[in-house]
Amino acid sequence: MSILEIRKLSVNYAGSNGRNTLALSNVDLTMQPGDFVVALGASGCGKTTLLSCIAGFMQPSEGTITLDGKLVQGPGAERGVVFQKHALMPWLSVVENVEFSLKMRGVGKDERRAAAMDKLKRVQLEKYADSPIYQISGGMQQRAGVARALASNPAVMLMDEPLGALDALTRAHIQDLIVELWWQTKKMFFFITHSVEEALFLATDLIVMTPSPGRIAHRFKLDFSRQFIECKDSRAVKSSAAFIEMREKVLSLIHDAPEATRG
Ligand SMILES: Nc1ncnc2c1ncn2[C@@H]1O[C@H](COP(=O)(O)OP(=O)(O)O)[C@@H](O)[C@H]1O
Ligand SMILES: [Mg+2]
């Protein structure tokens, strides 16, 4: 079974004026299949820095990240990334974008097309497989980004505010879809958001981060996503007494924090 272990992770950015920013300090986190970790926190608390380290886009100043005991030292196919702004290639169709990484790895045409179509079905986009990227909506582009990240069947999905730019209805719909994906695939998810409601709905493990230095200030185990899997009614889950109570608790944690930690 896969396991992702983050131990005593610190990242120090050297500023041009000689002032350093301790973007992350002493972060410990363990993830296993089926864990949906959501990092919630104001701008500047180190969420993207943490994701970039897990993705292998950058190396920490101190500490280690291992996946199945192997040190993360660069990007890899076992970690799929979805960005806030889609990073799709506009000159390729939807399905060509999804199969691109498989093509680069030498997977044959029929096999990679079948894999890409399967991922597109999972995000309800199979009808748009041949559409150019610029002809589909923002919500569809983000779903295509999710399908692309799934294409190489990664153990870990890394998502940096993927729904942040979408309207509320589209956002809620894709949240439901992501919970279904998590449930079907039992992958590890590391998901960043500013939205308390989104965090509570998606997370099995919520980490609330605070800045200066960036660190994990609070952790919660949640099961609202499992409730959604049972009842398929996200509005019922989000309006339940338990959800509202938790939302107020997390909001007060964020609001009671010192001024500098708020967004
Ligand atoms: N490349 C960089 N060089 C210097 N400082 C950076 C760089 N990237 C991020 N920072 C700083 O590190 C802190 C954490 O940033 P970031 O990880 O982007 O936070 P978040 O994603 O939570 O908004 C912030 O103070 C930010 O200004
Ligand atoms: Mg960020």
Radius of gyration: 18 Å
Order of helices and strands: EEEHEEEHHHEHEHEEHHH
The H-level CATH homologous superfamily of the largest domain, spelled out, is P-loop containing nucleotide triphosphate hydrolases
Structural class: alpha/beta
Tell me the major beta sheet: 6 strands, mixed
Count of separate structural domains? 2
Structural overview:
This protein is 38% helix and 24% strand. It folds into two domains: 4-78 and 156-261, 3-Layer(aba) Sandwich (Rossmann fold); 89-153, no CATH class. The strands form two sheets. The protein has a six-stranded mixed β-sheet with strand order 6-7-8-3-9-10, sandwiched between helices. Helix 2 (94-104) packs across helix 3 (109-122) and helix 2 (94-104) packs parallel to helix 4 (138-150). With 263 residues, it is α/β, with parallel strands linked by helices. A hairpin with a 5-residue loop joins strand 1 (4-14) and strand 2 (20-31). Bound molecules: adenosine-5'-diphosphate and magnesium ion. Residues 47-48 line the site of magnesium ion.
